[in-house]
């Protein structure tokens, strides 16, 4: 009696054999190179013991899958698309893909900070007609200079990806790090001191958003999505930023009020923005306010899009599924009953 598993995207020749070659599994895979159709997913989930989904799939599959469902595995580090309460209630195990994408997303965060500060949006658009002048397209410098030796990085959310981003900023001369964290977790100055020593910075402190906005030369949005962080970067935050600062969002579009950010860029409250995630994605038209905003680089959610990282994520998602199906350890299981 084989266990049925449903996989909402083909995970490619490096990873699919982990599932397809397993004689105990009956594997059903969405057959197209497009977002898995919801109706197809619900139909095929019937009788399934395991389901492997992407961020694009709202993982509320319980009624369709019924009591046979043992495990849901998502190929993403974020899990705001999953109903954790319901999973816990039904004793369905849940796997996700932390760690394997940390470096790729930290790399992209640095890239966007540089692209926003150097205004690559407008300079690439204009280059055939570019006319040089001493201060044409000059913006802030990410690394320290002799006239401007202090750099402060601000992080909204200070988990693995934020810390990997900080590690990359230290060689640019960043010696000051401010972060804002979930208000329900208590402040821990001793842990902050240990992190300051680990990353080799002079200052590392948890602060309120107002101080983070006004003191940072670059703000990285790296907290989870969901209702608790909805529009945490709003008009008030943006108005408080330095006019020379840049904002980078490589987390979730819902953390930033897009209309307020577009207005801020048009009016110069901050210098530029680098955005890998937009509220309402993937349906972002060419007339979206952020696509039209000056000095705003917009990417289509490619933070983890390197070959090695995506193979790592897909492998981890497949191994999470297998662990959950056979009652074994899952390499990255989320404790849903917290
Ligand atoms: C990407 O956004 C992820 O959650 O993996
Ligand atoms: C994800 O949420 C992380 O910081 O790794």
UniProtKB/TrEMBL annotation:
GO molecular function: glyoxylate reductase (NADPH) activity; hydroxypyruvate reductase [NAD(P)H] activity; NAD binding
Keywords assigned: Oxidoreductase
CDD domains assigned to the protein according to its UniProt record, in alphabetical order: GDH
Keyword Oxidoreductase: yes
Superkingdom of origin: Eukaryota
UniProt keyword Oxidoreductase present: yes
PROSITE patterns attached to this UniProt entry: D_2_HYDROXYACID_DH_3
Domain D-isomer specific 2-hydroxyacid dehydrogenase NAD-binding residue range list: 111-303
UniProt xrefs under SUPFAM superfamilies: Formate/glycerate dehydrogenase catalytic domain-like, NAD(P)-binding Rossmann-fold domains
D-isomer specific 2-hydroxyacid dehydrogenase catalytic domain: residues covered: 5-335
Positions of transmembrane segments: none
Gene Ontology CC terms: cytosol
Family: Belongs to the D-isomer specific 2-hydroxyacid dehydrogenase family.
PANTHER family the UniProt entry points to: 2-HYDROXYACID DEHYDROGENASE-RELATED, GLYOXYLATE REDUCTASE_HYDROXYPYRUVATE REDUCTASE
Name of the protein in its database record: Glyoxylate reductase
